[in-house]
Write a structure and sequence with these properties.
Blueprint: H1 2-7, E1 12-18, H2 19-22, E2 23-25, E3 28-29, H3 32-43, E4 47-53, H4 71-84, E5 89-96, H5 101-104, H6 111-128, E6 133-138, H7 155-168
Parallel strand pairs: 1-4, 4-5, 5-6
Antiparallel strand pairs: 2-3
Helix pairs in contact: 4-6
Length: 169
C-alpha cells in the first residue's frame, strides 16, 4: 500500500484511530498496532496525521454518544499519544463528524458541546509534542439540520453568505 501511495505522488497518510482500541483499560494503552502503522508510514517517507475518536465504553456517559463524559480523559490520551510519536506524527485531527448525534450524543450536537473536547485534545497534543499541528474534527456533510440527529455542516457558512448578501443590498 505504501508503494502505491508513493507512486500516486502523495506524501501524507491519514489514519483514523479508534481510541477504544488503544486505551484498553483506564490509563492502560496498547500501542502495538499503531506503532506498526506509524513506523511503516515514516519508513516510507510519509508525513502522518492521526484522527482520534470513539472513547472506550468505560469513559462514556449515558448521553455522551461516542465522546468521553470527561474531556480531560481525551487530554490525557492525546498527551500520551503525542509524546510517544513526537517527531513521527506531524498532525492530529481532534475527533470526526462531531456534528452527528452518534458521535456527540442526542441533544449534544453543538459547537458548545464539542469545544471542551477540542480544547482538551489541543492541550494534550501540545503538551506531548509542541511542534505537532492540530486540526478540529472534520464535519459530516449532512446538508440538513435534523433536531437531535445532525447539524448542517454548511449552516455557519450559509449564514455568513446570507448576512453578507443582506448587508450589501
Amino acid at each position: 500500500v505504501m508503494g502505491l501511495v508513493q507512486q500516486a505522488g502523495f506524501n501524507w497518510a491519514k489514519h483514523q484511530v479508534e481510541w477504544s482500541a488503544v486505551e484498553t483499560a483506564p490509563g492502560q494503552y496498547d500501542w502495538s498496532e499503531l506503532d506498526s502503522i506509524i513506523n511503516t508510514d515514516v519508513g516510507a517517507g510519509l508525513n502522518v496525521m492521526l484522527s482520534v475518536q470513539h472513547a472506550p465504553d468505560f469513559l462514556r456517559g449515558p448521553s455522551s454518544g461516542l465522546m468521553p463524559a470527561d474531556p480531560s480523559t481525551y487530554q490525557r490520551l492525546m498527551q500520551a499519544m503525542a509524546a510517544r510519536y513526537a517527531g513521527k506524527v506531524k498532525a492530529y485531527e481532534l475527533w470526526n463528524e462531531e456534528n452527528l448525534a452518534r458521535e456527540a450524543g442526542p441533544g449534544n450536537i453543538s459547537p458548545a458541546s464539542y469545544l471542551p473536547l477540542l480544547k482538551a485534545g489541543y492541550t494534550g497534543v501540545k503538551a506531548g509534542d509542541a511542534a505537532a499541528q492540530v486540526f478540529l474534527g472534520a464535519l459530516s456533510p449532512t446538508g440538513a439540520n435534523t433536531a437531535g440527529v445532525s447539524m448542517d455542516d454548511l449552516t455557519p457558512h450559509r449564514l455568513r453568505v446570507s448576512q453578507s448578501t443582506r448587508a450589501a443590498s
